[in-house]
Amino acid sequence: MSAYPQVLTKRMIEHPSDSHRIDVYEETGGYKSARAALDMTRDELVEMVKASGLIGRGGAGFSAGMKWSFLAPPRPAYLVVNGDESEPGTFKDRQLLERDPHQMIEGIIITSIANEVHEAFIYIRGEYPKPARRVQGALAEAYRKGYLGKGIFGTDYDLEVTVHLGGGAYICGEETALINSLEGRRGEPRLKPPYFPAAKGLYMMPTIVNNVETISNLPYIIEHGPDVYKALGDEADTGTFLFSVSGHVVKPGNYELPRGITWRELIFDVAGGMRDGNGLKTWIPGGASAPWFVPSDHLDDPITRDACEKAGSMLGSGAVIVMDDTTCVIRAAERVVRFFSHESCGQCTPCREGTTWEEQVLRRIEMGAGREVDADLLLDIADNISPGLAWPPKMTTICPLGPSSVSPITSIMTYFKDEVMQHIHGGGCPFE
Amino acid sequence: MSWSPETLERAEAIIARYPQRRSAVMPLLYIAMREDGYLTEDGMRQVAELTGLTPMQVDSVASFYGMFKKIPQGRYLISVCTSISCMLLGADDVMSSAEDEVGVPAGETDAEGVVSVEHVECIGACGGAPAVQVNYELAEGMTPESIVEMIRWLRQTKPDVVRADELQERFGGTKSFDPGILEAQGAVGPFPAFDPYGTAGGGS
Amino acid sequence: MGGVPLSELVKVTVDGRELDVPKGQPVIDAAREAGVYIPHFCHHPRLEPVGMCRACLVELETPRGMVLTPSCTLFAADGQVVHTTTPVVKKAQEGVLEFLLINHPLDCPVCDKGGECPLQDQTVGYGPGESRFVEEKRHFEKPIPVSDLVLLDRERCILCARCVRFADEVAGDPLIEFADRGNNTRIATFPDEPFSSYFSGNTVQICPVGALTAVPYRFRARPWDLRKAASTCHQCSAGESIEIDASQNDVLRFTGVDNDATNQGWLNDKCRFGFEFIGSKDRLRVPLIKNEDGTFREADWAEALDLTAGRLREIVEAGGGAAVAGLGGARGTNEDAYVFSKFMRTVIGSNHVDAQMDDGLDPKLLVAVDRKATISDLDSASSILVWGPDLKEESGTLYLRVRQAAQKRGVKLVVVHPRRTGLDDCTKHKISYRPGQGPDVLRALAAGDGEYAAARAVLDEGPVVAIVGRTGLTENPKLAESVAAFVSTLPEAKVMPFARRSNVYGALDMGLAPGLLPGRVTLDDADQVAAFEAVVGAVPDHEGRDARGILEGLEGGELKALVMVGADPVRDVPNGALAARALDSAEFTVALDLFLTDSSSRADVVFPAETFAEKEGTTTNVEGRVQKVARIVAGPGQTQADWSILEEIARRMGAPMGFQDAASVSAEIARVAPAYTGIGWGDLFGDGVVVPREGVEQPLRYQPVDHQMASVSAPFVLHLARTLYDDGVEMRHSLSLHNLAPGARVYLHPADAATLGVAEGDEVTVETASGAASASATFDASLVRGVVYVPFNQPGMSSLGDEVEVTVRKGVSG
């Protein structure tokens, strides 16, 4: 891992036992960027972040600087840090929150200054009490030193930061659902238009919603400048990226890497290759919502946003789930579809009804009660959620959760149709 | 209502962190769970009064999220992740092993009210699959055997505080990442051990 | 629909046709108006769009290609090109309908909604022909009550959220909501907190499936068996547009009709379900004559009419027309009221008539005030003042309209009332006060003193619309008039003096008030009186007594006889004991009524009258809007319309009034009532007509007077106010509603209760100069200290009169 440049994980590797403490943070250069940002104008900061090419690390991959520049004029504006990490396969934000909370806090300060925000909220999923405790402790340290609260760093800029714990709902990671949750409502996504957070977000005021990892990149960008940050990666995929690798690899874990290496490098070098000497069957490149890749077609592709999209999938949250040849892909697909059915908020008809119907059909197929018509039925249900089964997906739904449930279905029907039909004709799972 | 003056004071301090009272619904629901051990009707009424909502509006929010339990749980809530990454590494076997040892199907509590076991979706510990949480404190790299040991230990020693690091040390295997310093905090019931605004402590 | 300004039109192309559409109008509505129907469930023109059901998806042309978007959340903008019938759209629509049906139970044969069901209809038009679903459907326990009036079937529910949105957005009663999420989402109420909103019935009407059904209608009929008639609600004075549904000879249901001028489709539950009295078995069917021993015997019309005409003629010959008085007329049609008014003036020769029950305002203020507001004026006001009853209790339509103005149109609301009201949560300034001290509050508010400065400043933002009325029955009606006088000094101000009962505005317009002749004419207006007399006959010139004066006169013997038309003074006047004594003292009383009530049972002769839905005619609402009421069922037994009974009596008194049918009455009204000039039944389609119509002058334009009153105080003061459900005659015979009345209660501030040593639930006795009553105590922290609130006309609660001073003590009276 040390062969690759480190931005986000440097401190936690070099200080294994206390990287989360403010004294260690400051000894290693922390809070310099926040001070520098206080002397910069909003335009300067926005331009710098735009120039750095920093894109969102939550899954949507939108330019952070552009997001900031869309912030509508009315004030007060709010910053909400999205720590609702719930996409299956993703566990990088947990590490960032637990091991280097001050990095994120400094990023919050910078983002707030850039966007005239005086109240920021860190939404952490309910299943992460330990990361939340760590963050709360770090906030307490920052408040004590006057880096947060009234008049930060001796200026007249006020900034309050509050940790808000979620309640166990993946959909709250969607930015408008998160905002609804933060307002004390059901975590249901809002219609966009008109409820783009930059215009009508928290309490209908302009709001920036950024992922934990995205925000954590900011101290480095301010300190070293956008060009250095860009050079860590390349023009299209700047900086570094945290990959969460899990599944049938020897060394699962979070890896900070530039984009551009190949899948082969990631799976076989960085993550130590397949366990038990098994063969690589398939992998999910970007979290449960992403269509799957197979070795024959994708192993030597570079891991870049562009290459992934051209291949009909996405980099998403950087969660790589690797499956070896002992895996029943129908069972795996059913498990992913079940996730979306459980996590559907229930507002809109195609997702609420469709994801559960998909799950029911897949389960029947997996258990051996599949019928000949079920293969086409499955695809048609999927088509009624995501018309044309296109990529990027079209939606009949309010938000992309429904269409995400289509990814495993199109993946197994594209690459493993024979296994599907084996289940149906054979009346059971050939892997049992 | 039933909350003590100190609790009401805490509630007001939490409400004060938000520009609108209604935003405090979720942290107040956790306080309600802390007060009664689970989310009772009275707890929801109290939250409604404090936030200016009707009890049904509070119930509507509470029931949306999986962690607000309206049915009493055991003293130790074991959440077994069975999402894709954990499933690939054998979580289904860990789950059935847990069900057998606890003696109830997933979603229920044992007759003594000590251990509940439930399915959960991805808890963000995929590097240490299969992963479980006890009262939302994480133990990774579990096996069908180690979960049985953990359940037996919980039933025998009945610890007042469940600590992630202790669980991991005793029963866990592969971890997603190095946790760094071990900590003394932990959970005292089937709700996340996080106290906003003042009494959290956490790391140092 | 719903306030989209027509000033700016944009071009939107729908299926190749270019349309001129108001900017911002939802495309689904624009398309509908152009004859293009797009299937939908969650969309409702009176609710904020949510784009949840996804049935209304259309394809919108964008630079990035065709985009599927819901047409309910697509707001018309110039140059939009929309396609509603492409293969992609059709597949999406079919897909959505299939998704809705997979868990929907096959209940059609037993479901109330069958035959008028948007899911049935749109499945036929836009859905799949067969089901492909072979899994287990979702199951729930069903039906479950969500309130006394509404049942919920969760299996049928398609989770469109119309009921949730209505309850929260429109009614302000968020008691019904979604619970759980995803596939487990269901509608729920909180345990022990049912959906007992006064507006719950609207959710049954707008539910697009049979998930919400109404207890009074459940399993009663099939839509294709119903006869329907457009009519106007008769319960309260807002004159809501309704459709009456009847089968055979039974009225089975009322539904709200969307009239933008008045109720916009909504009805409160009393208006909606308050029809059961029509078909009650206790309805009077034949005339009754009182025996010596006080019991009644059935009689034929000839005997009863002869007896009545004979007794009245005797009394008139002995003491003059002024020995006879008339009470009532507010519950019938304008035609009934006019004939009653003509009967009393020209046949009997008396000016002692009153349609109010000593519980209203000066009739000149009510019907003829200058710069009278309409309901839609509330939409375009800058600020609204409500100083009167709790509108949620007394006028659901005005309550919903004011609420909408405050919440959706940014209108600033100032509410003045002795305790909490349904509007408090959307009020900018709420002023609470002790009954009796209104005059001081008015002076301070008008001057903007101290704590009233902010509220006063709001009222300087015109246009101002004020709804003024008595906040309770112990409040001097002159206060409301003084408030109206203050309001007339405000910028671009219009005022709506409020009275609650049924067709009271129509009755007063027909001259059922001392000092008023039909058509907003006072007896002081010599020219107008002469014009009236020329057509109709001589009008007496003695001073007329109002309801209180009539009852006092009967008690004291100055008045000898009483004609009651649809009136129950023993229950409706604040001093019920006085009314009882008055009726018992009278030498002769005749009542035209539907039931034997506390009042009609004291009469010497009782005639069985037709009621609402059994007779055709017109009514007039709080705005002065004249609307039609329809006849759709025949009255039971030998019932007759009020006007017809009075015509028969007049004939037998030798002074026939000349009416053959209701239409002939209407024709005479149009001739002799100046404000009603030119109003014929044929003019009243749609929204009716606000009288006087364009070009017609009403002789009386009343300027409200500031009566410069003094405040009254006492250690404890009584706030005697009405609730929606009470022990009124029609309520008692509408079984679904009767048990919803709060019952006998006394509300005390907790601190006052503490000083009296009263715990919640203890029996307490309240006593005024007029009477005493006992009931259990309920705490109400919204009361000002020292105020005792007693809901009026509740079962088991005796009358307390209308004095403001009251004493309270623990324990039962006697």
Characterization of the model:
- The complex is a heterotrimer of chains A (432), B (204) and C (814).
- Chain A is 44% helix and 12% strand.
- In chain A, strand 2, helix 8 and strand 3 (160-165) form a beta-alpha-beta unit.
- Chain A is built from 21 helices and eight strands.
- In chain A, helix 3 (32-38) packs parallel to helix 7 (101-114).
- The mean pLDDT of chain A is 95.
- The longest helix of chain A is centred in the last third of the chain and has 19 residues, at 349-367.
- The radius of gyration of chain B is 18 Å and the shape is globular.
- In chain B, strands 2-3-1-4-5 form a five-stranded mixed sheet.
- Chain B is 41% helix and 10% strand.
- Chain B is α+β, with helices and mostly antiparallel strands and 204 residues long.
- In chain C, the strands form ten sheets. Chain C has a seven-stranded mixed sheet, sandwiched between helices.
- In chain C, helix 14 links the parallel strand 21 (464-468) and strand 22.
- The N and C termini of chain C lie far apart (59 Å).
- The mean pLDDT of chain C is 95.
- Chains in contact: A-B, A-C, B-C.
Any chance you could write out the topology, listing elements then pairs?
The complex is a heterotrimer of chains A (432), B (204) and C (814).
Chain A: H1 10-14, H2 22-27, H3 32-38, H4 42-52, H5 64-69, E1 77-83, H6 92-99, H7 101-114, E2 117-124, H8 129-144, E3 160-165, H9 175-182, E4 207-211, H10 212-216, H11 218-224, H12 226-232, E5 240-247, E6 253-258, H13 263-270, E7 280-284, H14 295-298, H15 305-310, E8 319-324, H16 329-343, H17 349-367, H18 374-385, H19 401-404, H20 406-415, H21 417-426
Parallel strand pairs in A: 1-2, 1-4, 2-3, 5-8
Antiparallel strand pairs in A: 5-6, 7-8
Helix pairs in contact in A: 3-7, 3-11, 4-12, 6-8, 11-12, 16-17, 16-20, 17-18, 18-20, 20-21
Chain B: H1 5-15, H2 25-36, H3 41-51, H4 55-64, E1 76-81, H5 84-88, H6 91-102, E2 108-109, E3 115-120, E4 132-134, E5 137-139, H7 144-157, H8 164-171
Parallel strand pairs in B: 1-3
Antiparallel strand pairs in B: 1-4, 2-3, 4-5
Helix pairs in contact in B: 2-3, 3-4, 6-7
Chain C: E1 9-14, E2 17-22, H1 27-33, E3 57-62, E4 65-70, E5 80-83, H2 87-102, H3 118-126, E6 144-145, E7 150-152, H4 162-170, E8 176-179, E9 186-189, H5 201-206, E10 212-214, E11 227-232, E12 241-247, E13 250-256, H6 269-273, E14 288-290, E15 296-298, H7 301-319, E16 324-328, H8 334-348, E17 353-354, H9 363-368, E18 383-387, H10 391-394, H11 396-408, E19 412-416, E20 429-431, H12 438-447, H13 453-458, E21 464-468, H14 477-487, E22 494-497, H15 504-509, E23 516-517, E24 521-522, H16 526-536, H17 547-556, E25 561-565, H18 569-572, H19 576-585, E26 588-593, E27 605-608, E28 617-620, E29 625-629, H20 642-652, H21 662-672, E30 689-690, E31 717-721, H22 729-732, H23 735-738, E32 745-748, H24 750-756, E33 763-767, E34 772-779, E35 787-791, E36 807-810
